[in-house]
Amino acid sequence: MDLIDDPAPGQNTPEYSVSEISGAVKRTLEGEFGRIRVRGEVGRVFTARSGHLYYDIKDDRSVLACTTWKGQISQLSVVPEEGLEVIVTGRLTAFGAQSKYNLNVEEVAVAGQGALMALLERRKKQLAAEGLFDAARKRKLPFLPEIIGVITSPQGAVIRDILHRLRDRFPRKVLIWPVAVQGANCAPEVARAIEGFNRLTPGGAMPRPDLLIVARGGGSVEDLWGFNEEIVARAAAASAIPLISAVGHETDTTLIDFVSDMRAPTPTAAAELAVPVRVDLIAWADSMGARLVRAASVGVRLRQQRLADLSRALPRKESLLDTARQRFDRTADRLDGALTTGVQRRRLHVSEIAGSLRPGLLNRMIAAQRNAFQSRARSLRPAQLQTRLSAERDALARLARRLSIAASAQHQHRVTALASADRMLATLGYQATLARGYAVVRSGGDLVTTRADAARHATLEIEFADGQIDVAQTGARTVRKPKAEPPPGGQGTLF
């Protein structure tokens, strides 16, 4: 009888390949746990270039690796941030290639309102440190905007309240950008709406608003959380258009309230801040007009009274001429006697002078003057005068020659300069351009430089290098010879 050795202990245990045991562990984990919820603090957070989100959930003793695929991120109501206490929901699975397991997270919720407030405080401190809350960077709201952009949900009472209040106070054009006001899509849609309004062109087909209102009704902290997201706060801070935040009720506060240019306690209050009351403006304008009329009337009356006071201090117009009239009458009465007396006095003076004149005295005076003339004539010598005249004539001839030489040189210089200027004119003038194949279009002597300008004229004058033609709307042409140009270097008239 042959003895058979007993098998070694443990040799009856089934054998598994690595892939089989990895698959068995994966099936066990997924079958045993399925969809679970885990509470913990978010550890490191990493976003891969593929768009997938990797992070850890930990407590004081253990760490659980979590993954949210790229397509699932947009469905998260809260994006995990390091240090935030959350409750994650997902499916536990294993990654056999590395003998690891992790949680595929489909939903993230903040673990209690206290954690939300702590996250909000951290964000507030971060944005405040960057200066986004500074009052110096906030812009003044326009007094009366032409176009108001409203970012809110198209359904609900908020938009109706805003439109109703604007219509009551001062009707304005309103552009509505519909967005989700809660949930995962709230923050990205609001941020895109603010950026979209800012990218519009002023005066374009879709005009750019002069003022933005971001509005939402009241709700819980979780409902308003989309307006606490950093992407919304930064978009509001970067807006070049003044922005009013009207999120929640008066007691609700979100991050967008701190970075906006003005916070309104309610959406209705935002509409009141956006525009003045039209009736009040009309009443104010009427009161200012009445004050202007009263001021003008009072001013006219005061000036009339002042003029009357001054006129009483002036003499009567009749009395202004009385003295001059009397003086004229007295002078006219004395005029006849004064003329007679003057003539008699002058006649007497002439008689006195004529009595002293005698023919002998006149002859002696003439003889004395003749002797003086002859004495002066004898002192004059013709030879000296001729010598001096010859010297002066030679000097005059020399000056004439110098003047002729200088005039000739100056004339030649100016002729040379004029010829140079004429050559430069020919080089820079448009006639040289015409010789290269261009033409000048005029209408009534005025240049025509555009097709639209040419269409407005019935007749056009086209100048070529070799002549000018007139072109009418019917296509008829009239050829005219070019104007004669002055010879180079010569004088001419340029028309």
TrEMBL record:
Bidirectionally degrades single-stranded DNA into large acid-insoluble oligonucleotides, which are then degraded further into small acid-soluble oligonucleotides. Keywords: Cytoplasm, Exonuclease, Hydrolase, Nuclease. GO terms for molecular function: exodeoxyribonuclease VII activity. Belongs to the XseA family. It catalyses: Exonucleolytic cleavage in either 5'- to 3'- or 3'- to 5'-direction to yield nucleoside 5'-phosphates. The keyword Hydrolase applies. This is Exodeoxyribonuclease 7 large subunit. CDD domains: ExoVII_LU_OBF. NCBIfam families: xseA (TIGR00237). The keyword Cytoplasm applies. Its main location: cytoplasm. It is found in: Cytoplasm. Heterooligomer composed of large and small subunits. HAMAP family: Exonuc_7_L (MF_00378).
